[in-house]
Design brief:
The structure is a homodimer of 210-residue chains. Chain A is built from eight helices and eleven strands. The first copy, chain A, has 210 residues and is an alpha/beta fold. In chain A, strand 7 (116-119), helix 4 and strand 8 (137-140) form a beta-alpha-beta unit. Chain A starts with a strand and ends with a helix. The model of chain A has no long low-confidence stretch (mean pLDDT 96). The A-B interface holds A 3, 8, 37-38, 49-52, 54-55, 58-59, 62, 64, 116, 139-144, 147, 150-153 and B 3, 8, 37-38, 49-52, 54-55, 58-59, 62, 64, 116, 139-144, 147, 150-153. Chains A, B: Pathway: Amino-acid biosynthesis; L-histidine biosynthesis; L-histidine from 5-phospho-alpha-D-ribose 1-diphosphate: step 1/9. Chains A, B: Belongs to the ATP phosphoribosyltransferase family. Short subfamily. Chains A, B: One of its GO terms (cellular component) is cytoplasm. Chains A, B: It comes from Cyanobacterium stanieri (strain ATCC 29140 / PCC 7202).
Chain lengths: 210, 210
């Protein structure tokens, strides 16, 4: 049976709609009373796993899900060995460098060598500053990254920006964009190549007229 | 001004009560309408940062907080360079290995070499299996670790267990305890040694008759 890993959070509603294009109904995950993490489509041809957005690439890489939906930001950060099949055209946001608006920094390269940058996306941040040849220290945080500059722990942050509201509320401004992100359909490369459980058929239905 | 990093989540209420023993009132963090991540005690002698439990050691290590309260599980996992001042006697739980109850494994060492263990506590899990000389693969997950064995991705999990309800609901049983955990008071070693902002005085009040 085809298994698809769906991300909790901001991408879930659009992901479930996408599955509906392929005739798969996982709308039970949207019900506030649902506690199940694994449900079968009523027609019995597929099942879905409801997992943390960062865990989607793991379930797909290890073959417990044939397909998955994950933000490009998560794919860049996790570097899982999975096939990126299609940009799904929703969940737009960007990975940015931000600093306090009254700081003197207006580009990443303005930051002091050996400065500190706080981020949930440690690998993305490291790559960005390595490419600039700027030896900053990347400090991993799990939440409320904006507290880094507010408390004076870090000169800057690397974080996902969607509307920019959180940055504005915390007196921060974007000074560089690392990349744009949106939701991607991903697959386990081997299962996809073998077209197990008609993966290709589902992918075609999900991505037609996308 | 003394700054203390308090953990969001299960330890917050007891942490705030502990601060009250030292005359510091941060109960605003318990109000559901509060959106501030940084508040000052009404008497003006200290402030508190409200951060993710895993981020407490970071703010303390980098000196943005003199003191912090964090679970021993987080301290073991993050290995931050901070001083462990006192076991606070609340937030009891244990770090355990669990497997599906119908599996043949009854001790960690029964697990197959090159088996897979899913965990949010990658360092703790690695250390445990390294000490046993058992070459398992540790797969990092961010949430719902119990899905690892349910989907067949992993033979076992290493996770925090408090009441054991989540394990039971998912057909898992504990087969080994790595360590017991509880909340600890931690300090930045240098600031503590210099007794900045009377850290020692606050620590004494917080830990007396503990």
């Amino acid at each position: 049976m085809l298994t698809i890993a769906l991300p909790k959070g901001a991408l879930l509603k659009d992901s479930i709609e996408l599955c509906q294009k392929a005739g798969l109904d996982f709308s039970l995950f949207l019900s506030s009373s649902n506690r199940q993490l694994q449900i079968e489509d009523p027609t019995g041809v597929a099942k879905a796993l409801l997992v943390r957005a960062q865990d989607v690439p793991v379930y797909v890489e290890y073959g417990q899900a044939h397909l998955g939906i994950a933000g490009y930001d998560v794919l860049k950060e996790k570097k899982a060995n999975i096939a990126h099949l299609a940009d799904l055209g929703f969940g737009y946001c960007r990975m940015s460098v931000a600093v306090p608006k009254d700081s003197p920094y207006r580009k990443s390269i303005d930051l002091p060598a050996h400065g500190i940058v706080a981020s949930k996306f440690v690998n993305c941040a490291k790559e960005h500053f390595r490419a600039l040849d700027l030896p900053v220290e990347i400090v991993p945080l799990y939440g409320s990254v904006e507290l880094g500059p507010i408390t004076g722990m870090s000169e800057a942050i690397v974080d996902l920006v969607s509307t920019g509201k959180t940055l504005r509320e915390n007196g921060l401004i974007e000074i560089d964009v690392l990349f744009e992100s949106s939701a991607y359909l991903v697959a386990n490369p081997l299962l996809y190549r073998l077209n197990r459980d008609n993966i290709a058929g589902f992918v075609e239905q999900m991505t037609v007229n996308n």
